[in-house]
């Protein structure tokens, strides 16, 4: 089963030590995370989720910053702004490095439900207190999901899985559940895109079958 091998690939990815953050950013890891954390502002909303951001440094210059999974325009914008504001802080030299980092927007306390691939940087956690009138907790979403799966109501289960994946995009078990629901609903392209997403993020060359 392909998802079994995806899990195994997590442990087979080789890190490029020459691209360590501490070696490429003036002030090292601590200064980088301080800079990013102080730049990001939580929008006035109950939107939560994990934004995956990727950027490339060529010879000490930021040449590409992009969001790998769109969560919400306001959250995505904050993350892009924070990375772009690190301009001028990267050590000059003849090198090219790519970095991927999760930025988690959470209301109240945060407890991760997922592990990230070893080539990812540690996540930045942006949390705030506030009204939770329209906020659905992780536990509530998981309870809803389990109920829908027991009832074999795959359409409602899929909708709930979409909400969970916004918060935890790299959770392999959740992705597997969404692939199962997509297959049950004959949404084969959507299932294929989920598989491709995991393969790409785990450092494995993506299949091109979804594009056909």
Quote the beta fraction.
15-25%
From the 3D coordinates, which CATH architecture of the largest domain would you assign? 2-Layer Sandwich
What's the number of helices? 8
Q: Taking strands numbered 1, 2, ... along the chain, how are they ordered across the largest sheet?
A: 2-1-3-4
What is the third-level CATH name, the topology of the largest domain?
A: TolA/TonB C-terminal domain
Characterize the overall form: globular
Q: Specify Rg, calculated over alpha carbons.
A: 18 Å
Terminal CA distance reads 22 Å
Q: What is the average per-residue confidence, as pLDDT, rounded to a whole number?
A: 81
Main beta sheet: strand number and arrangement? Answer: 4 strands, mixed
Query: In terms of structural class, how would the helical and strand content be classed?
Result: alpha+beta
Order of helices and strands: HHHEEHEEHHHH
The quaternary structure here is single chain
Domain module tally = 2
Low-confidence stretches: 1-17
Secondary structure: number of strands:
4
Helical residue percent band: 40-55%
The level 1 CATH classification of the largest domain is: Alpha Beta
């Amino acid at each position: 089963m392909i998802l079994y091998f995806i899990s195994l690939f997590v442990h087979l990815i080789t890190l490029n030590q020459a691209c360590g953050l501490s070696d490429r950013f003036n002030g090292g890891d601590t200064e980088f995370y301080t800079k990013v954390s102080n730049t990001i502002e939580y929008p006035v909303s109950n939107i939560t989720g994990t934004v995956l951001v990727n950027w490339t440094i060529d010879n000490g210059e930021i040449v590409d910053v992009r969001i790998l999974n769109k969560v919400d325009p306001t959250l995505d914008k904050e993350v892009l702004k924070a990375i772009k504001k690190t301009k001028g802080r990267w050590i000059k030299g003849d090198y090219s490095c790519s970095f991927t980092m999760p930025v988690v927007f959470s209301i109240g306390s945060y407890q991760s439900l997922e592990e990230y691939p070893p080539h990812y940087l540690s996540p930045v956690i942006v949390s705030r207190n506030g009204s939770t009138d329209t906020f659905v907790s992780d536990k509530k979403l998981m309870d809803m999901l389990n109920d829908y799966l027991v009832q074999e109501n795959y359409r409602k289960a899929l909708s709930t899985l979409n909400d969970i994946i916004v918060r935890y995009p790299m959770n392999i078990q959740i992705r597997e559940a969404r692939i199962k629901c997509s297959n049950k609903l004959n949404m084969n392209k959507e299932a294929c895109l989920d598989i491709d997403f995991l393969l790409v993020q785990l450092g494995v060359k993506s299949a091109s079958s979804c594009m056909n």
